[in-house]
């Protein structure tokens, strides 16, 4: 069991600073997911915790011990990579046992740990196979198994599922969630995938250009994003944003309709944010927006309607089931009583 603490972590490549002073407290046993757009510094941060990348400033502690100058193998961490990084000339068993043998672990104990990890991951039948004779999903389980046998205090995952197809991804995601429950270890996980972040994380850390934008539970980030960046980043379908004007106790919408404001706001020009799943079809009289249906994507269980307003803004509306809508028809949309977000000119959430 181990806390992980980051204090003022910086990283520069030459004169270019890419991580600008990150502070973060990860509790022992917590599952923390780093998300953010490509190049925001997720992998760099993870690799600095792993000791694979030197830090340019700040302090990293694992289990209460400052590890800035501790080499990676002595940090009590195990890392699982996107590329699996298995040794091609070794069997599954040998791949899993390799690190323990290097550490001069007694043979009987190596055997017991490898078999226990194989049991947890249900790869007992493949122990004698070579990696090339395994599917991508099986290889990734071996890579996870290799991490488990070392009995680390902290697991670090760098996009471990991104090479798998959709159904295997979902299956392995559930296995990782179960693993976290079984092992009770601290896990830090980097991903691009919204579903992985939302479903696996106790807390999500949203990074942008080398800085933390917000840290919170998946539902906190979904319900109370602190700014338009987090609001637009979290959730499967991007939040809709529209410019609006505050007039007294009302919001004036793009096409002239008004919406009562529950809290008076000082800002005049603001951005309204509303998630596609919180919009609904309405009668023309009750609608807050009307527009032309420019694209509809039917998923069976739900549909995404892309509606172009007269102002040129495109709104995404998520509708249950398989709505019977025709391309280019007029669609009328109602805003929910709650679930509407407001942001100031700098993109900060207004409460
Ligand atoms: N060895 C390097 N030399 C110079 N710049 C680097 C090096 N490694 C990473 N960077 C830069 O540091 C920044 C952060 O990279 P990092 O790989 O951490 O991003 P990321 O958020 O993990 O991105 P992705 O999701 O695309 O993997 C990027 O701008 C990248 O170009």
UniProtKB/TrEMBL annotation:
Transmembrane segments: none
GO MF assignments: ATP binding
Key words of the record: ATP-binding, Nucleotide-binding, Transport
UniProt KW Iron-sulfur keyword: no
Domain ABC transporter as annotated: residue spans: 4-234
Record InterPro entries: AAA+_ATPase (IPR003593), ABC_transporter-like_ATP-bd (IPR003439), ABC_transporter-like_CS (IPR017871), ABC_transpr_MalK-like (IPR015855), ABC_transpr_MalK/UgpC-like (IPR047641), Mo/tungstate-bd_C_term_dom (IPR008995), NA-bd_OB-fold (IPR012340), P-loop_NTPase (IPR027417)
Domain of life: Bacteria
Xref: NCBIfam families: PRK11650.1 (NF008653)
Family stated for the protein in its record: Belongs to the ABC transporter superfamily.
Protein name as catalogued: Sn-glycerol-3-phosphate ABC transporter ATP-binding protein UgpC
Source organism (scientific name): Devosia neptuniae
Gene name tied to this protein: ugpC
